[in-house]
Structures are given as C-alpha cells and as structure tokens.
Design goal:
single chain; about 550 residues; alpha/beta; Rossmann fold; Ribosomal Protein L25, Chain P; 3 domains; 14 helices; binds adenosine-5'-triphosphate; binds magnesium ion
C-alpha cells in the first residue's frame, strides 16, 4: 500500500488477506465494466474511483471492459463518452476490452458445458419457463427438455447459432438445480436468440450470452483477480462461481466477486434507464445537461475531477446500502473551487448607480486581487467609472442596523475601489428604482494607504462599470427533483417530481477581464457563487453556468 497511514476499506482488507494467504501481488488485476447503454453517472464515478484507486494502491492494472452483450441498447456514442469521462476523471486503463470479443470463447465454453451435461436447450416459451421457476418458498419444476441428450443439445445449439430458429423459440440454460433456495441457480438462461445488429460484431451473431454467463467468464479471460461490483449482485455470486468452476483450469487466476454498496444520492435518480427517460422526454437538454447527475453533466456544470474524486473518497466504501446527501457533493466542489477559481465581479440583478461627484468621461483601472486563497494567483485591473451596476438587493432606501449593504444616507465600500454614500434615488412611474445617486470619497481608494482608505465601513459591495461590463447569459440551476427520493414512490413515477423551476436563464454583467475566457474555465463571482463557461459560449456572447453557491444554504434550509 502506498499510504500506510490510511485505514483500509473492507475490499482492501479482503485483498490483504488474499496476499497473506499466498496470492501473489503481481497477479492482482481489476476491471471497470460499464454497459455502453448510456452515459456514466456519479454512481459510476464512485465505482471508477474505487477500482482505479485500488489499481493505484496495489500498482495493479485496471481494464476497461465494455459489457456489451445486449445489442438492442448499446451504441458507439456511449462507448466514446465513457472513455472520455474516465480519462477526464484522471484515470488510465490498462486494456480496452469488450465482452463481445469473447463471444466465440464463450460459445466454445457453452459447448463444453453441454458436453459435460451442465447445460441444455430449452424449447418452451418464456411464460412456461417462468411458471416452472417456483417461488423463494416453493421449489421449481424441471423443464420437460431438461434431459435432452448431449447430441441433441449440441445439434440444436449449433443451429441456434446458425440462425435456423426464430427469436424466442429456444434458449440455452445451465443445468443446476430447480429446487435451489437461490432463485438464480434454478437453471438460469445462458443464451437467447436475438436478430439484432451489434455495434461491434454486426450481424455475425444471432445468439447472445446473458450477463451472468458473460461477466465471470470475461473476468477469467482477462485474469481479473478481484471483480468488484455492487450489492445487488450478491445473490449472483453463487452462480458466478458455479460458471467459473465449470471451465476453470489451474493454475490460472480464478476471479473473485466481491460487492460494495452502490452510491445513492438524495434528490437524484441514478439509473441510466431513468436518465435516458429524462433525455428522451426533453426534460433536460441532453445527457450533459448541467442538471443531470452524469459525469458529463457535472463537468459541464463546472465540477472538477478533483472534487468528484474527493467526494468518492469521502463517501467511502460501504457494505450496506445508504443514501448520501447531495450537499456533500456540493461541499466537495465548493472546497476545490475555493482554492482554484479566480475571483471576479459580476452583477446578476443590476440597478444603476451613479457617482455624481466623479467626473464624466473619466475612468480608472484599479488593482483587484485574483484569489486571496492562492498567493500565486496575482492581480488584474478592473475599470471604474461614474456609472456602475450593483445588485438590486444590495440597496434599500431604508433599512435597519442589521442591513450592512447600501441605504440612503449610508456608506459602503465598493470592492477594490472607493467608499460611497447613497444620496438619492430616481424612480419610474411604478416606483421601481432606476438609478441610485451617490457621492464618493476620492481619498478612500483601496490600497492607496491614506487614512481614508483604511476607514472601516460595515459593508462591501461588488459592482461593474456599465460602460465596460460584458453582457452575459447566466444559467442558474436548482435541483431537478422536488422530492428527496423521487424514484422510491410505489404509486408515482419519478417524472412526477420534476422541479419546474430547475433552470432560470438571466442576463448579467461581468467585468471585462472575462473577455476571451474558454469553455469550462471557472470563476467565483464575488458574493454570488461559483460559475463556469458553458460550451454554448461564443465570441459574441458569454454563457455561464452556476456551479454551486458560496455557502451551504441548502443545509440551513433543511435544518429549520
Ligand atoms: P444503472 O443502473 O445506472 O444503469 P448499471 O449498474 O446498470 O447502472 P453498468 O454500466 O452495468 O451500470 O455499471 C458499471 C459498473 O458501475 C458496475 O460495476 C456497477 O456495479 C457500477 N455502478 C453502477 N451504478 C453504481 C452506483 N450507483 N454506485 C456505485 N457503482 C455503480
Ligand atoms: Mg447494468
């Protein structure tokens, strides 16, 4: 282990025990096995960080294995996005593998099982087979085809492969035990006929292997020592081992399946099937919509690989199912961006502020620190002039002593600039404030060293100069679901809990130093939150996403 001091998780304990019992550390090998039927989500990120993290700790290779046995739902687009996401998270796989590369080997092993009397062709309908399955408390019934001769099975199986039969007419089943207390051991399906084009093997096959048969044998082909999956596969372990026992040849590495609790987040749905529904029904703009819990959505929203890795690490590896508060994910990105994101000034709900004693036409370029959390971040210049925007919420004509922002007759400091005093307002016919008129103290310039510049006033406001500011589209996000567990309702679909106000698009004004920024660049808009540049941004029009707020306001609301 690279970090002796770090306490081991239970998977690492299992590996350590294996090593102590004589398993050679050189033979340790892991894999991450996504099915390319959708984009990866934060749950997958958890699994990626676990598997690739183990690879780093044990200096062991980690394969990327596409579990592509279902031609109906799998596409190259998903393969590409999965590779991009893993790389972006900062991990490198050893071999890029596909279960479909093992179709011939799997077929040959299936023939071996038939020859050994361990598999048979069943020619009943799926309804008939389901009826014979029994229940957890009652035993199943043997299929009338269970005792077909090896010759007949071999002949039928070959003809299934050759496309002589229609889909649904025959299947290959393992011959295990129709009275097993584990329902999965009651003669599970190994193959079904499907006349579908596969994204890699085209029309070579019309016979496709089932997940359980494929997964363990693929692990075996790749000599994966520890095959780590999520808890729902625990009952599959017995079958995983049964399949391996029937083809295993010593002294090869015999893979070991071990299970950990999947990541669940509140206010989030996380199955690819459900995420696909959100995309297909145009609830979101695509798999990478910033409201999606996909890795591509989080990336677009401004999340960093470091924050996601930190999150996975903080969540840890659990043996029991649990639900993590999405506020933890937000905490991790806030922590990371606090160190990295340059501070800039932006006004999102503007009202005009005019400094009546500042000469018309004059402008000054003032020093502004880029990041107080990072001494190497340096400083930049921001333009100051007679006419500024400040946030509408930062001004009240009258307010009590607890209001530390601007009120008539009161003073505040304009960040990086001067102390101003509000004197008057101009309103429209509805009483809406159009302009705030102020005076400034010319001697109070920030950093000028004068006595006035050190004078303490209660509030500091951010601002932009109206003449110099860049107009920008700003996309503000709220949770996509209003319910804490949107997919846990028996009588209601998760689609009924969609927050109609999860996206708000506004026009804001940002300081001119933001000209020329690139996609994914992130910033702290001072006093407002963390924002990044969206891919829709162009030279003519900046588009920002709000990544996360500055403070954990969510936790406060919840604890009320
Ligand atoms: P989904 O239900 O979202 O479709 P899946 O399990 O079918 O997920 P796969 O592509 O088969 O998706 O998963 C690849 C790997 O990621 C598997 O090892 C799986 O156990 C793991 N994984 C999937 N979801 C989670 C999760 N929420 N937390 C941790 N690991 C996960
Ligand atoms: Mg799956």
């Amino acid at each position: 282990m690279s970090e002796e001091t770090k306490s081991l998780n239970f998977i690492e304990h299992i590996i350590e025990e294996d090593i102590q019992n004589g398993f050679s550390p050189e033979n340790i090998r892991f894999r991450f096995p996504p099915e390319p039927n959708g984009y990866l989500h934060i749950g997958h990120a958890k699994s990626i960080c676990l598997n690739f993290g183990l690879g780093l700790n044990y200096n062991a290779p980690v394969n990327l294995r596409f579990d592509d046995t279902n031609p109906a739902k799998e596409e190259q687009e998903y393969v590409d996005s999965i590779k991009e996401d893993i790389k972006w998270l900062g991990f490198e796989w050893d071999k890029e593998c596909y279960s479909s590369d093992y179709f011939q080997q799997l077929y040959d092993w299936a023939v071996l099982l038939i020859k050994n009397g361990k598999a048979y062709v069943d020619s009943q309908s799926s309804e008939e087979m389901a009826e014979q399955k029994g229940t957890p408390t009652t035993v199943g019934t043997n299929s009338p085809y269970r005792d077909r001769s090896v010759e007949e099975n071999l002949d039928l199986f070959e003809r299934m492969k050759n496309g002589e039969f229609e889909a649904g007419t025959h299947v290959l089943r393992a011959k295990i035990d129709m009275s097993s207390p584990n329902m999965l051991m009651r003669d599970p399906l190994m193959y079904r006929i499907l006349f579908k084009e596969h994204h890699r093997t085209g029309n070579d096959w019309c016979l496709y292997p089932m997940y359980d048969w494929t997964h363990g044998e693929s692990d075996y082909v790749e000599a994966i020592s520890h095959s780590i999956c999520t808890l729902e596969f625990l009952p599959h372990r017995e079958l995983y081992e049964w399949f391996l026992d029937n083809i295993y040849e010593a002294p090869k590495v015999k893979p070991k399946q071990r299970e950990f609790a999947r990541l669940n987040l509140n206010y989030t749905v996380m199955s690819k099937r459900k995420l696909a529904q959100l995309v297909d029904n145009n609830v979101v703009s695509g798999w990478d919509d910033p409201r999606m819990p996909t890795i591509s959505g989080l990336r677009r929203k401004g999340y960093t690989p470091a924050a996601i890795r930190k999150f996975a690490d903080t969540v840890g590896v659990a043996k029991r199912d649990n639900i993590i508060d999405v506020a933890l994910l937000e905490f991790c990105i806030r922590e990371d961006l606090n160190k990295k994101a340059p501070r800039v000034m932006a006004v999102l709900n503007p009202v005009k502020l005019i400094i009546t004693n500042y000469p018309e036409g004059q402008e000054e370029w003032l020093d502004a620190e880029n990041n107080p959390e990072d001494e190497h971040a340096g400083s930049r210049k921001v333009p100051f002039s007679r006419e500024l925007y400040i946030e509408r919420e930062d001004f009240k004509e009258e307010a009590n002593r607890k209001f530390f922002r601007l009120k008539l007759g009161g003073e505040v400091r304009l960040k990086n600039a001067y102390i101003i005093k509000a004197e008057d307002v101009v309103k429209d016919e509805n009483g809406e404030i159009l302009e705030i008129h102020c005076t400034y103290d010319p001697l109070s310039k920030s950093g000028s060293g004068t006595e006035e510049s050190m004078r303490k006033v209660k509030g500091t406001l951010h601002w932009v100069s109206t003449k110099h500011a860049l107009e920008a589209e700003v996309r503000l996000y709220d949770r996509l679901f209003l319910d804490e567990a949107p997919d846990s309702h028996k009588d209601k679909s998760f689609m009924e809990f969609i927050n109609p106000d999860s996206l708000k698009v506004i026009t804001g004004y940002v300081e001119p130093s933001l000209k020329g920024v690139k996609e994914l660049d992130h910033f702290q808009f001072q006093r407002l939150g963390y924002f990044n540049i969206d891919k829709d941004s162009t030279k003519e029009k900046l588009v920002f996403n709000k990544t996360v707020g500055l403070r954990d306001t969510w936790a406060k609301v919840k604890n009320k």
